[in-house]
């Protein structure tokens, strides 16, 4: 029986009113689900997100939200089998579903981990260091990021209903912004199943996630400058939404990921005997057939040296000929159907437009032998490889996206032409360069980078562990300029910050320190009470300071250090050679000696709550220290952060080493672990 997809709005599941559309199975055409958003009050949804979801999420800090994402990821992982079963109806093979379902859940895990490791246990982010703005240091600036007070509307494409939803949801929820998510109708039943699990889990606070089954009605009319629309889909729809009067009038943030005519380039150095040749063939064939080519990152333009054209064509044809097409439930099948009959019509139509200036060298647009299925009832299509001999004159190949198992071979004469052909895509998500020649790779990178969001540089050294041309990764930016939409998703924390406002604060260092909970130069310090190494994590206060006595550095200290460590660099050991160096007045102390002596000055040695020093950051040696100079240290608690383990916290200290004239000779951050009270 067909599923009836409900919208989840203002805390209630809403059954569709009249006019529900039938969603059919990609595999055999039976009706899988009915969807319509008629009867949904979109204004109430936006209000609910703003008044209920937003405040609940903003009451949590980044670590609590990261924890929430992790629990959600674990919860969904335990319920994957039901999603895999439903995913077959979209035409996805098990491997395709792995990208969609496990890949999506993996993004939740990745953001949970980044949130815990890279964001503070606060509700804002300090972006960069304090900026001194006055001569005497009484006025300074700092940047903070805070979550927007609106709602993020996510509009997704049909091809990856789970991944597409979760890769947007994870950074948005981590930022502290509620979401209204709308899947493409063609595969909405899979997104619906996942959202029902998420809501059912009770892990998210009320109002954090709402769901639209069907069209978005008047949703966009309710948006303001505190809201974000993040869209994935075709350029046509993207243009329509971007030009929506409310979006332009209210400067609603708009992120778009759309069509992309991605290229793979075979370097001019690669011969059929090179390992890179086989890697290239495998990657192109895989990108054509994974998810039946319905991937935003799929290789559409295969750019090869003219003299390699035949070898590439034959090798690709041989590989594509081995791909079994059919029922994705059958384990022998390598490629399932397209997502719907209408998608197959669109792809056939696009192929016929491409074929006006290219010839089909592999595949048949009308007939397709299938395993365990009916090629007409299901939306099956054979892979189609075209060859465009006059690549430099061609236009359609740089304009038409056949969103299916379709690629075109484009021969080039000289690397410059290869770059020009790739650039004619007018902005893509990704391009691959297969070469083992560093010069060829460098030329390609410099020519391609401004036109792409990601470059995949593969050779024999990296191939074994390389993640694939078509895999956007949570750590790396996903997006591209121009035709690809000009958006950037994921990219680690970059994706989180799209949903936050960056604000410059100006004020006294004392005020900025109190607001940001981070000590900055010029803010008050306190040397009262016991040495801060004797204080546990909860007792330590930002601004707590140790001012040490001075220690004079002798020539014997320098020689002892040199002999002990083996560092006998001439600047420490040879007066004449040191003098000849423009930076030194003569023999000087080792930088590491200064660090070691500084630690000797500020450390409180007895066992106590300070457990370990786990690193230094931002270290700079600013002035040489000569024999006879004396150094002293000011060590100040700069910031505190809860660690992953509940028994400890991380403390960042500002260390500044001065000479006898009060000049700074070294400055750095010391990172330590301190115990919490038992
Ligand atoms: P689409 O037709 O543009 O639809 C995309 C989304 O927009 C769907 O959820 C659709 O909902 C919705 N939509 C359509 N008209 C709308 C309107 N007037 N107001 C609000 N929402 C509207 O694209 P698609 O066919 O699903 O996806 C294929 C395209 O997406 C390809 O061009 C592909 O390159 C691109 N894509 C890009 C990326 C990327 O990351 N760059 C990823 C995947 C796909 P309905 O389904 O209900 O109409």
Give a short synopsis of this structure.
With 678 residues, the protein is an alpha/beta fold.
Topology:
Blueprint lengths: L2 E3 L1 E3 L2 E3 L6 E4 L6 E5 L6 H17 L3 H17 L1 H8 L6 H25 L6 E2 L4 E2 L7 E8 L4 E4 L7 H13 L3 E4 L5 H14 L7 E3 L16 E6 L1 H8 L2 H5 L3 E6 L3 E5 L8 H15 L9 E7 L3 H13 L19 H14 L4 E4 L21 E4 L18 E7 L2 H9 L4 E7 L3 H11 L3 E7 L18 E2 L10 E2 L3 H4 L2 E8 L1 H8 L28 E3 L3 E2 L2 H11 L4 H4 L1 H6 L10 H12 L7 E12 L8 E13 L5 E11 L5 E12 L3
Parallel strand pairs: 1-5, 9-10, 9-12, 10-11, 12-13, 14-15, 14-19, 15-18, 17-18, 19-20
Antiparallel strand pairs: 2-3, 4-5, 6-8, 7-8, 8-23, 16-17, 21-22, 24-27, 25-27, 26-29, 27-28, 28-29
Helix pairs in contact: 2-4, 2-5, 3-4, 4-5, 9-10, 12-13
Bound molecules: NADP nicotinamide-adenine-dinucleotide phosphate (NAP).
The site of NADP nicotinamide-adenine-dinucleotide phosphate has 26 residues, from β12, α7 and β13.
């Amino acid at each position: 029986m067909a599923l009836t997809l409900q919208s989840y709005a203002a805390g209630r599941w809403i059954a569709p009113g009249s006019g529900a559309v039938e969603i059919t199975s990609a595999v055999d055409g039976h009706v899988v689900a009915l969807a319509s958003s008629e009867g949904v009050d979109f204004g109430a949804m936006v209000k609910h997100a703003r008044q209920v979801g937003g405040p609940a999420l903003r009451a949590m800090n980044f670590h609590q939200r990261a924890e929430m994402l992790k629990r959600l990821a674990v919860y969904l992982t335990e319920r994957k089998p039901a999603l895999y079963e439903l995913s077959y109806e979209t035409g996805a093979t098990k491997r395709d579903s792995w990208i969609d379902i496990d890949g999506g859940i993996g993004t939740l895990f990745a953001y949970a981990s980044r949130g815990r490791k890279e964001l503070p246990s606060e509700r804002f982010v300090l972006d960069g260091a304090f900026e001194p703005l006055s001569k005497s240091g009484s006025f300074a600036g700092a940047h903070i990021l805070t979550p927007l007070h609106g709602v993020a509307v996510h509009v997704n494409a049909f091809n990856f209903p789970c991944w597409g939803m979760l890769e947007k949801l994870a950074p948005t929820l981590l930022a502290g912004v509620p979401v209204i998510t709308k899947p493409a109708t063609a595969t909405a039943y899979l997104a619906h199943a996942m959202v029902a699990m998420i809501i059912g889990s009770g892990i998210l606070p009320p109002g954090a996630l709402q769901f639209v089954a069907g069209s978005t009605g008047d949703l966009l009319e309710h948006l303001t400058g505190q809201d974000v629309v993040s869209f994935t889909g075709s350029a046509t729809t993207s243009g329509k939404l971007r030009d929506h009067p409310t979006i332009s009038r209210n400067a609603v943030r708009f992120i778009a990921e759309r069509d992309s005519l991605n290229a793979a380039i075979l370097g001019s150095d690669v011969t059929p005997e090179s390992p890179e040749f086989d890697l290239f063939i495998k990657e192109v064939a895989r990108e054509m057939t994974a998810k039946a080519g319905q991937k935003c990152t799929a290789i559409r333009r295969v750019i090869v040296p003219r003299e390699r054209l035949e070898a590439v064509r034959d090798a690709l044809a041989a590989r594509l000929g081995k791909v079994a097409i059919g029922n994705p439930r059958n384990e022998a099948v390598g490629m399932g159907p397209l997502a719907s009959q209408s998608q197959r019509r669109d792809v056939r139509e696009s192929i016929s437009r491409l074929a006006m200036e290219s010839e089909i060298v592999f595949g048949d647009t009308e007939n397709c032998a299938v395993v365990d299925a009916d090629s007409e009832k299901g939306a099956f299509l054979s892979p189609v490889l075209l060859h465009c001999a006059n690549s430099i004159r061609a236009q359609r190949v740089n304009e038409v996206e056949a969103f299916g198992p379709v690629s075109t071979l484009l021969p080039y004469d000289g690397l410059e032409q290869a770059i020009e052909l790739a650039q004619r895509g007018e902005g893509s998500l990704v391009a691959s360069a297969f070469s083992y020649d560093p010069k060829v790779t460098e030329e390609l990178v410099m020519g391609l980078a401004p036109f792409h969001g990601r470059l995949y540089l593969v050779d024999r050294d990296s191939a074994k562990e390389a993640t694939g041309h078509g895999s956007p990764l949570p750590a790396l930016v996903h997006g591209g300029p121009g035709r690809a939409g000009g958006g950037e998703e994921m990219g680690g924390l970059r994706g989180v910050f799209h949903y936050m406002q960056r604000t410059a604060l100006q004020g006294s260092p004392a005020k900025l320190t109190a607001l940001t909970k981070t000590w900055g130069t010029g803010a008050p310090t306190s040397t009262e009470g016991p040495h801060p190494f004797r204080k546990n994590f909860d007792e330590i206060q930002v601004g707590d300071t140790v001012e040490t006595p001075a220690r004079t550095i002798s020539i014997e200290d320098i020689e002892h250090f040199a002999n002990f460590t083996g560092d006998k660099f001439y600047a420490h050991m040879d007066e004449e050679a040191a003098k000849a160096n423009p930076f030194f007045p003569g023999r000087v102390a080792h930088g590491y000696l200064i660090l070691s002596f500084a630690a000797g000055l500020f450390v409180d040695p007895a066992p106590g709550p300070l457990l370990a020093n786990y690193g230094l950051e931002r270290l700079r040696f600013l002035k040489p220290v000569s024999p006879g100079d004396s150094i002293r240290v000011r060590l100040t608690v700069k910031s505190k952060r809860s660690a992953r383990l509940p028994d400890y916290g991380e403390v960042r200290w500002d260390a500044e080493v001065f000479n006898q004239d009060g000049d700074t000779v070294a400055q750095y951050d010391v990172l330590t672990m301190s115990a919490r009270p038992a």
